[in-house]
Amino acid sequence: MKIKPQEQPVSDTAGGVRAARDTLRSLLEGISEATMLLNRELNVLYANTAARMLFTNVSISEGMAFGEFLQRAMPQTKVSDAITTLEAAAGDAISGACKAGDLFLKSGDRPLSLRYSGVECGCVCEGESMGVEVQNAPVLAVMLREEKGSNHLPRLETVLDSSSDGIFIVNRENHIVYFNLACERLTGWRREAAVMETWECANVLRCHTESGESMGSESLCPAKLFFRSDSIPEPHEMLITTNSGKEKWIETNYSPIRGEGGEVEFIVAIIRDIDERKQLEAQLVQNRNLASLGQLTSGIAHEIKNPLSIIMAGGAAP
After folding, report:
1. Following CA atoms 279, 281, 282, 284 in sequence, which dihedral angle do they give, to the nearest 10 degrees?
2. Helix 80-94 crosses helix 66-73 at what angle (to 10 degrees)?
3. Enclosing domain of residue 193
4. What is the DSSP letter of 62?
């Protein structure tokens, strides 16, 4: 549906676009397939969690040109024809005549299907006087899916989600780009909240030392040290604060994902719940201390008893 400038004030129309876009974002998070919203210029307005998890090799940001994203995601593929098709679809969507369509791309051994359709947000705008919000109205929804052959292995996300250990991946900005189900159970964070471009992993894990010092600093964060020195950190034991406010002990291990040039592009972190083990260790230390205290008390009592026995024996002699 088109809304012309004279039919509705700019502020009202802009507010309507914001509300419609927020609603669409909520709907996108309920879709299991990787899905993005694009504006009339084919810039990314929103990418759902499934999209960020499918394309961990690309840092998807709001306002990013979809053509740039597609070229980074499929570096061995010519994407110009696909972009030309999407530009025509965006034009049709603005005029209310967009039909759903499918594209197929392949980069190396990674085939990708792309399904696009027009978005009916209730306020597709005309003219340049409508403001930034209306100019950024979503006009296309694009769903991306990796195609599998009959002998294709299960998707990486399926394998990682079956792990009992928490597994997450951070990029060079220390932002979480993948967060498996075990991480959800350990931290209390939903993956769609954890996988956000503006959040460092320290904001999610809230990791700290036993004395309460945050481990998100440049000098203590294992991931930041990894990117800076390119040396694999030793396994760490640290405390985290879950989303519910509970402190929990975890053990962490890190491995690099390197680019074609050998540089570290991502870090895979594996976290394991060792809270019960730490409690047992603390109980064991306490038991040892009590045993040592008992031995010390027994020894003192023995040393006191011997002189008293001599004195009492001497006092009883005729």
Report:
1. 120
2. 150
3. 156-277
4. T
Is-contact 38 67, C-beta < 8 A?
no
Whether residue 129 sits in one domain with residue 11: yes
Per-residue pLDDT reduced to its tens digit, 192-214: 788 865 567 888 889 888 888 88
Which of 155, 64, 151, 171 is CA-nearest to residue 112? 155
Same domain (yes/no): 111, 163 = no
Residue 299 lies inside a defined structural domain of this protein: no
**Do residues 266 and 162 make contact, with C-beta atoms less than 8 angstroms apart?**
no
131-167 tens-digit pLDDT: 444 456 778 889 998 866 534 445 677 778 888 899 9
Q: What is the CATH number of the domain that holds 215?
A: 3.30.450.20
Residue in 14, 37, 32, 35 with CA at minimum distance from that of residue 119 = 37
pTM: 0.52
